[in-house]
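S.,

Sequence below, as promised.
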Amino acid sequence: MPLARAHQALTHAQADVTHHLRRTHRLSDGRAPADVALLERLERAVHHLAQAVNEYTARLEATVSVLEGLEKTFRDREEVDVPELAAPDFAHLLAMARGARLHQHLVTHRLSVITANGRTPYPVLQRLESAGLVEIDRTRPLHAGQRIELTALGRRTLTVPPRTRALTDFGGPLAAPAPHR
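The prediction came back faster than expected:
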């Protein structure tokens, strides 16, 4: 069960608990005369409240299990070693994530990679493919356009936060700030 559905079910269960709790409070606030009918209505209200609480507890456990699964997936992603990409290669990989095709010009036979953001140089595609970040669907001819899709490693490369790097000043070690004059 996806997290959104689990949260939605939990929210509905919480609303049911709140509704039955308010109903119980309204019945027991002392405004109605205490008689057998009131006691029967209170008994039914408490029964419905107990059912709503049980439903809420079940939905809460389901939501917690979905969250635990997501946390485990996130921890597993953090442990996966992803390749270090230069900023331009990362930008090209990100552009390819939105959809890309490899085309061959019919006259010049030149290969070009078309993305939603524009063109990507073919050598960049070769680098990313050799690193295992993208794969080309070679079932179609080049002149018709071959789809380029990210592999699981390519998607992880885009989703894993970059490693923290020491700040550098023009490629050298971090320099102390110059004194203010």
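The two ends are 62 Å apart (CA to CA).

Coffee later?
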